[in-house]
Amino acid sequence: MSFRARFILAASAWTALTGAAAVGLLLFFAHRLPDPLASHWGPSGRPDDSMSLTTLVTVTVLLMLGLAVPCLIAAIHGKALRRRQSRGFLAAAFVWAGTFVVGMTAITVWANLDATTWRAARPIHWQAFALIAVTFALGALGYLLGRFGPDEPPPTAAQRPVYTPKPGQRATWVSTASNRWLVGSAYVFLAAAIVLVAAKVALGFSSGLWALAIPFTLVGILGLALSTIRVQVTEGALAIAFGPLRWPVYTVPLAQLDAAWSEERWPTEVGGWGYRGLPGGATIMLRGGECLVVRYRDGGTLAISVDDAERGAALVNGLLGSRTPTP
């Protein structure tokens, strides 16, 4: 059995096992649960909504499938399993999804256990934060486990594109990429922040609006910064400008680079959109598809989703002094 088949089999078994465990908890304690039972808790920690046991079982199954099926599709049809990093993200997603559904179900059962009605269910406070912490910790463990196994090697020197400027010629490559959905979402968050501030200033609404306006503003600004990108290669550096204002700018001196190439990457392979990964193995993901990948002299890599990436990689290799022919 191939490594790919073993990974898909293990992920499918994990999904089935955790899904069955969540449903099993509900059915095992069904005789000690009110019907309907509390299914949602408000900011105060008190239950504020309910659903029947049958509906909750159905929702649990659908939630498990909704979280796991996209990951399974990415594992079966995509290239995520070829690369160690993307495989780690997929494994993290599987582990997080399973533990989250089981943990959420366990808390729901505990809160409703032996309650006479759903309104008498136990309040939930620290348990929600514990669930978040535990699921992300186990997701991180899943990421580490997913990195075991083979890794797709980068292109060899003979396979990498190269364009060597003629003597005296000054060559520059510039390309951009954008994600209109991220742009739109960022503007929605900024507009919501403006509305909240206006409501507070003009109408004197609750001061709690400030607590909402601040994160909305930060999310909007961050969304704009990661929705548009401009990449430029010159004789001295690789410059990455973020956002519609082309600021901030992240500059990598070419002296720190070893090679460059183009490859396809997708959000499902790197954990989503935006800045994904850690320094030394990061991807700036705006949209799936062609990415410019540069390798640092210390072995780390940086991938940037940008159009016309192969020409950019060719110029980087040429400026680095590569003399291998373009494949």
Description:
The chain has 327 residues and is α+β, with helices and mostly antiparallel strands. It has 3 domains: 3-146, no CATH class; 180-225; 251-319, no CATH class. Helix content is 48%, strand content 19%. The chain contains 8 helices and 11 strands. It has helices at residues 3-28, 53-77, 84-112, 126-146, 180-203, 208-225, 267-270, 309-319, and strands at 37-41, 47-51, 173-178, 228-233, 237-242, 249-253, 257-265, 274-276, 281-285, 289-296, 301-305. The strands form 3 sheets. A 5-stranded mixed beta sheet has the order 7-10-11-9-8. A 4-stranded antiparallel beta sheet has the order 3-4-5-6. Strands 1-2 form a two-stranded antiparallel sheet. Strand 1 and strand 2 (47-51) form a beta hairpin. Helix 5 packs antiparallel against helix 6 (208-225). The longest helix has 29 residues, at 84-112. The radius of gyration is 25 Å and the shape is flat. 33% of the residues are buried. Mean pLDDT is 87; it is low at 322-327.
